[in-house]
Amino acid sequence: MKMRTLKTSLMSLAASALVAGSAHSTTIAGWDFSQYLGSGNLTIDGTNGADTLSANYSALDPTNGAGAESAAYGTMFINGLHGSTAVDPFSGTPAIVPVAPSLVSNLGAPGAIPFDSQSVLVDEGQMFFNELSLVAQSPLDVVFRADLSSDPRHGENWGITFGGKTVSGTSVLGVSYSLDGLTYVPVTNVNLDSNDTPYSVLFAPITADVLYVRLNLATANGNPIIDNVSVNATLVPEPGTLVLLGVGLAAFAFSRRRTA
Q: What b/e string do you get for 115-151 counting C-beta neighbours within 10 Å, with b at 16 or more?
């Protein structure tokens, strides 16, 4: 009786794990822009310009879901690569700069901890922590890459969430995605105003290990501000893992019939 109960429990546990692993979206890569030195400074070390920015949040990060190990799962580009605009960090008026304060919308994106978790980031070795957001001073494209190539699972049901507003007036923010960082698929336009608002955009049903998301920031009627960016996906096992799980469940079922 105990053996049968154990096998039933194992089967239920395996099936539950499969369902849970394929049903919930999570932050693959997230940015709260707190790494920057301060307002107007596109640098994370006080010396060198930063026209790329590693993710500082990821639910896949094994230590607290944030910090240096999150960098493996995402990079922001404003250096001309992957369809982004090349920004000179030391220009008198860069196309985009960090500003204080940070936005409060989308702090609770789907991850292990909320954005702006200062104590965790500092403990994880982040050099600076400042509550900052990014404001566009001229039109540009910002690209966020989420990368699952170091994880044995694939991503499905991809999307992006972020906080957004304008300094004043209104602005249209375009959202598109790409599988190769070259050809982008337009998804939608988001209308920003002066209210700090969370936004969520889902993409077409795709399965991918790497995804690029491009935000087109327009400044015709108002300077857009973004913060707390999270590129999300549902994690699903490799096909081989599903086969092994199916074989295991079948073996359990056969064993139950023999011992019943």
A: bbbeebbeebebebbbbbbbbbbeebbbbbbbbbeeb
What are the tens digits of pLDDT across the range 173-206?
A: 999 999 999 999 999 999 999 999 999 999 999 9
Quick check: bond before 101 cis, omega within 30? yes
Alpha helix stretches (DSSP H) within 24-138: 118-123
Report which residue type is found at 229. V
Torsional sign, CA 125, 130, 136, 137: negative
Q: Which residues pair with 97 in a beta bridge?
A: 135
Contacts of 11 (CB under 8 A, 6+ apart): 249, 252, 253
Question: Exposed/middle/buried for 68, CB within 10 Å: 0-12, 13-18, 19+?
Answer: middle
| Cβ proximity of 92 and 126 under 8 Å | no
Output the CA–CA distances (angstroms, integers) from residue 124 to 138, 197, 205, in the order listed: 34, 29, 35
**Pair of tokens at residue 139:** 């039109």
Residue (of 230, 228, 82) closest to 143 by Cα position: 82
pLDDT tens readout for residues 111-167: 879 999 999 999 999 999 999 999 999 999 999 999 999 999 999 999 999 999 999
Evaluate whether 260 touches 8 at the Cβ level (below 8 Å).
Answer: no
User: Which domains does the chain show, CATH number per domain?
Assistant: 2-259 (2.60.120.260)
Q: CA 144 → CA 41, 169, 247, distances in Å?
A: 20, 26, 38
Cα(83)–Cα(86) distance, integer angstroms:
9
Sign of CA pseudo-dihedral 86, 109, 22, 64: positive
**How far, in Å, CA of 72 to CA of 109, rounded?**
19
